Amino acid sequence: MRQVGITTTVPIEIMMAGGATPVDLNNIFMLSSERDWLLSRAENFGFPNNQCSWVKGVFQVARETGIKEVVGVTRGDCSSTEKLLEIFQMLGIKSIPFAYPADRSLPDLIKELKKFARRFRTDLGKAEQARGKLSGIRKKLAELDRLTWQTNQVSGFENHLWLVSASDFNRDPARFEKELEAFLKMAKVRPAFPQAVRIAYLGVPPIFDDLYQVIEQMGARVVYNEVQREFAMLKPARNLAEQYLKYSYPNDIFYRVSEIKKEIKKRQVHAVIHYAQTFCHRQMESLVLRRALELPLLTLEGDRPGPIEARARTRLEAFMEMLAK
Ligand code: SF4
Predict the structure, then answer these.
(1) Alpha-carbon Rg of the chain, whole angstroms?
(2) Is the CA virtual torsion 75, 305, 68, 47 positive or negative?
(3) d(CA 186, CA 311)
(4) Who has the most CB within 10 Å: 71, 174, 269, 288?
């Protein structure tokens, strides 16, 4: 089976229609027991200390897994991607480009999807069939999301983990669906989580292992994982182009804010945590979010994988105390 690495959400329906298995390198990095070693190896290779850990982790995972091809999103994801792709090229790892249009233009997006389909020797008709197979799983994930904010039977961490895993459906959509069904069956009959304070988590997934659990210990609970929900593509869409047009992450912050506001209202959120990775250009998004959202907002920063760092924990405690007053 042709395995193709991905470093963010891309039209996996097209890849699958072309006979490839998408492999999310971020998820392999985050679930690895050797994360520190992977980062040290990337740094020994020459990556600077002041480079985002996700970039270094993804790079090293690609090397360790021996993956031969990687999809690189050249617009709408990470400012480091273009350089990362050049380093891959130097190592003989082929890069397959995909770009989200800057202005959410439907015709431009369709052009990009067609170009991407040609790279996988398939077409959008076949990709629609692949989309149909995944749409049942996406509906079940939407149900999981509803159980997170409406009945409070799914924790913020469970929500995060399931939604973030939908980037490649853990490389086996059929098995993923079975496991998801079993999880939903269990979650639907358990009592609701008791935490009274409802939090929206915005920004890229956290590098900390225990952030959600620490928030719960402090009497609050994440009921909205913004980017993870976008990765999982839970919004109803009539076709592939519409599905990717509705995907807010590659778009400007103002479009994202309009989505965030809708969800915050629906989920009765009390406060917002905006997570930003150290050395990431997306840290600046906090400036806009703080002004655009009429809720208390805490910006948290994380660098290396592991438990929440002491400074971030202290800031989180102070924020929770302020909310409790
Ligand atoms: S956290 Fe920021 S710098 Fe790091 S990979 Fe993601 S977008 Fe790029």
Answers:
(1) 19
(2) positive
(3) 36
(4) 71
Instruction: Give 82-115 pLDDT, tens digit per residue.
Output: 999 999 999 999 999 999 999 899 999 999 999 9
Atom number in ligand 1 closest to CA 204: 1
What is the domain extent for residue 51? 2-124
CA–centroid distance, residue 7 to ligand 1 (Å): 10
Q: Name the one residue in this structure whose structure tokens are 């915005």.
A: 202
CB burial string 173-200: b at 16+ within 10 A, e below: beebbeebeebbeebeeeeeeebebbbb
Residue 67 lies in a domain: yes
Asked, for residue 19, whether it belongs to a domain, the answer is yes
Model pTM above 0.90: yes
Q: Is 25 in the pocket of ligand 1 (CB under 6 A)?
A: no
User: How far is it, in rounded angstroms, from Cα 86 to Cα 306?
Assistant: 29
Residue with tokens 């990470």: 78
In 3D space, the residue among 75, 124, 71 whose CA is nearest the CA of residue 94 turns out to be 71
